[in-house]
Structure prediction request, 81 residues.
Amino acid sequence: MTPDLLNDALDANLLPGPITVETDHWVNVLSAVRAKCTALHDGLRHRDIVIHVGSKQETKVLTRAEAGERGAPYRDLLPIG
Prediction:
């Protein structure tokens, strides 16, 4: 998944759950989205959607139903930019 494909996936679902990313894919590709962590309790976020990076993660955007509480607190999707 490229940064553009990630944004397309987020835009296709206006109430996305968390973004999960495999560690090497984050380091080599998706870190280009320039995610932000404004507070430790908020975690790493892109367009205000939480990102979970881990070696056992699959790179995808979960729905809120799939994620349950894993993406909470949920926030509205911010526009690109």
